[in-house]
Write the structure tokens for this entry.
Amino acid sequence: RSPVGAATPGSSDRYDSYVVGLLSSRYREFFDGLPVLARHLVLVTGQWVAHVAVLVERLQRDRAAIEKACGLDAGRVCRLTPGLSDRHEGGGRVAFVEFTSGLRLAYKPRDVGLEAAVQGWMRWLRQKGLPMVPDPLVVVDRGSHGWVRWIDRADFTSVDDVRAYFRAAGAVLC
């Protein structure tokens, strides 16, 4: 049977067959000489699979709260980029999630309560008439994890842009 052989599409048989094919190749010989590397790869791969599964589960569960906070119907996920940060608590990492609506989020597999509080404070400052405070980010705090609306980095195009940036930063610091 070939590594991608005659297994039923969508079944785990196809994956199992692929792994058997890899192990019957020179990979087995390679990893027999490096058992610690083999164990580490198995551990990291297992953590990655588990954390992507948790991300998908949390996204399904949190979708209504995300859409309410962002004020739109997110649509379908069209891009998911896991692994954007260093590993935390058993391998969890920040991920980028993009929806067909154009909504883009950072998934953070940790408490984002402090980020939500800071953004709430910045929203309050703007409401009280401090317009130079940067626009607050949308943060969806779910206790054990959270979602933050993605903001792209923008280059300065003029000296006035630099002044405005540092004026806003100073307004937050003072």
User: Anything to note?
Assistant: The two ends are 68 Å apart (CA to CA). The first helix runs from residue 12 to 23. Residues 61 and 121 are 27 Å apart (CA to CA). The helical segments are 12-23, 26-32, 35-70, 113-127, 159-173.
